[in-house]
Amino acid sequence: MDRLSLEILAIIVSYLNPSDFIEYVSVSRQWQFAIERYTFRSLRLKSDDYDFFTRVCSDSHRAAAIAELEYDVILPAYSDEQCAKFESEKDEKANNEAFTNAIKRLFETLHLWGNPSNDGAHKMRGRPIMLSLGAYSTTDPRYREAKF
């Protein structure tokens, strides 16, 4: 199995059902890399999952696999009463601060991936990432969980 090229493995992985990846990821290191190249290609990330994201993507092959990243900034929650009103200056300032901090953290990490690490290896190979940004509060009507 370790004699298959990464290109051939990538083709095989593309035909697998993603629910079966867990069975194949432990076949060998080469299979793990091929499956992670596929699964890490397109990620959706919320700012409150950021620490987990940086730990999981600290491996250079995972970071290098990312081609598309959807990043949703979670803004501060607000009350039901505030839901029907315009944003106050205080709320606007809190939202702006939360958004700015989340975006700054993301770009600091992406910047580090483009620079040599302690061992001198570059994590990203100069490949672009398609980045989509969004922002919402979990108390926005569209994102509230149904209350039964």
UniProtKB/TrEMBL annotation:
Domain F-box: 1-43
Coiled coil regions in record: none
Pfam families per record: F-box
PROSITE patterns in UniProt: FBOX
Transmembrane intervals: none
Domain of life of the organism encoding this protein: Eukaryota
InterPro entries attached to this UniProt entry: F-box-like_dom_sf (IPR036047), F-box_dom (IPR001810)
Official protein name in the record: F-box domain-containing protein
Organism: Coniosporium apollinis (strain CBS 100218) (Rock-inhabiting black yeast)
